[in-house]
Amino acid sequence: MLSELLKNKNLFYHLYTIDKNVAEQYRQMPCPLCGGPLYFANYLRKPRGEPEGVSEKCFIRFSLCCGTEGCRHRVMPPSCRFIGRKIYWHIVILVILSDWHNKTTNIFKLSKLFGVSRNTIGRWIVFYQDIFPSSPQWQLIRGQVAASIKSNELPANLVNYFLSFKSSAKEALVSCLSFLSQGAGIYQKIRAG
Ligand SMILES: [Zn+2]
Predict the structure, then answer these.
(1) pTM of the full structure
(2) Distance 69 CA to ligand 1 centre (A)
(3) Nearest 5°: CA angle at 101, between 95 and 107?
């Protein structure tokens, strides 16, 4: 059961360090609007679903702000921890949907285990099956993975795809989350440009 991985607080720290490195790369780029310097303007988020003892810094949402007076454009580096304004960690959403899709456990048990209402899980299923497949983000990155990954079985089949060649479930999830966030980055760059 993939959800066993959500007890691993080091996994959350690992995802934080990935986001930190990506944010630093973005900070070194010029403001997409005026070419000015970008500075960190981070803030804290309060996502749900992590195990006890996760370091406080893992809750930092990296954010950048242009230093040019009169511009102050904000740039959000892509994140493998957060997905839009959803209130659960992205990894929690992927794991719950994968365990549900792969029938490792049922929606009632998952709902109880993570304190997520069945309605919320239902909304995630709708998001991944009806909204995400037609998003510019998915359209841009889907060519990088096997064509056999059907849009109507996301995200479980994408997680399964990474599980098929990575040496551990942890590595597979981290790669899958990085892959998905990379799409968000491309999307943001295009919007900004
Ligand atoms: Zn600017």
Answers:
(1) 0.90
(2) 8
(3) 80
